[in-house]
Amino acid sequence: MTKTIKTNNKYIPFPFKISKKKNESADTFTLRLDWQVDHDPGQFIQVSIPGIGEAPISISSYSKKYLEISIRKVGNVTNALFNLKKGDTLLVRGPYGKGYPMDNLKGNNIIFIGGGCGVAPLKGAIEYVERKRKEFGDVILFIGYRSPGDILFSHKQKIWDDNFKVHLSVDTIPSKTCYSGNVGFITQTIEKEKITNENTVVFICGPPIMMEKSIKILKSKGFNNKQIFISAERLMYCAFGLCCHCMIQGKLTCLDGPVFRYDEVINFKTD
User: Fold this and answer.
1) Which one of 60, 71, 197, 254 is CB 3.0 to 4.6 Å from 120, fit for a cystine?
2) What is the percent of the chain with per-residue pLDDT over 90, rounded to a whole number?
């Protein structure tokens, strides 16, 4: 049964049961909660397990029936979440932050650039466009992973191929790995492709070096800072602007982000 929380207090954690768990790769997995909540693509929630801790996790879906979070095992909380199974309960509060301004971008062409687990925060925005396909122009996905074993959301690949122009690439192929796709850094693909900056916006999320290189290439192709949106990954504790741990260029990631237009945080440094 889908659970709807009827409260305006986003700062109180509520218990939710996991309705589905899917392993995406060796170290990344997706949990589905049957939670009906209004949210924008790019927002995040705070997920906690009593006795272990709490962590901010981006929403990786766009649905009125459920909410999904895709998590990489990198610490105590995420490792504990990995050990949960369907039917187990976790605590959730949110959603928080500013997501992608999808309603303001209708009619635009959109380019998505994602690297590794940075594809997860983009996935909700991609699904938004997928559901409202006629309201947007051309859509291009540039997605890069370290190796074939790191590819996420393989079940979405055909849907994305049918709706968008997709460039998927891996950095390397380990020996004895069966893979016939593109090999090389995704930034190399972006550099080679002919893309127009006319009536186009770009969403980027991934490793800092990939984001920096992608922005440099986009600027060489005529894009300006106001056409580029980045999803800033910062460890957020309180999620309502009190601790200031997530500050970038005088802005709080938990309130003013995590999605920023690039001209707002062009130097991209933690204060």
Assistant:
1) 60
2) 76
pLDDT, tens only, 83-111: 999 999 999 999 999 999 999 999 999 99
Which residue's structure tokens are 């559901």? 131
Q: Do domains 14-95 and 102-231 have the same CATH topology?
A: no
The CATH code belonging to domain 14-95 is 2.40.30.10
| Domain layout of the chain by residue ranges | 14-95, 102-231
Which DSSP category does 250 fall into?
A: T
Could you please state the CATH topology (level 3) that the domain comprising 102-231 is classified under.
Rossmann fold (3.40.50)
**Cα(first)–Cα(last) distance of the chain, in Å?**
44
CB 225, CB 262: distance < 8 Å = yes
Peptide bond into 258 cis (omega under 30): yes
Q: Which residue has the tokens 């187990």?
A: 88
* Confidence category of residue 63, pLDDT binned at 50, 70, 90: very high
Q: Which long-range contacts (CB under 8 A, 24 or more apart) does 231-234 make?
A: 231/42, 231/58, 231/118, 231/121, 231/122, 231/203, 231/204, 231/205, 231/257, 231/258, 231/259, 232/257, 232/258, 232/259, 232/260, 232/265, 232/268, 233/118, 233/205, 233/258, 234/258, 234/270
Single pTM value for the model: 0.92
User: How many CA atoms within 13 Å lie on the side-chain side of 106?
Assistant: 8
What's the CA gap between 157 and 159, in Å, rounded? 6
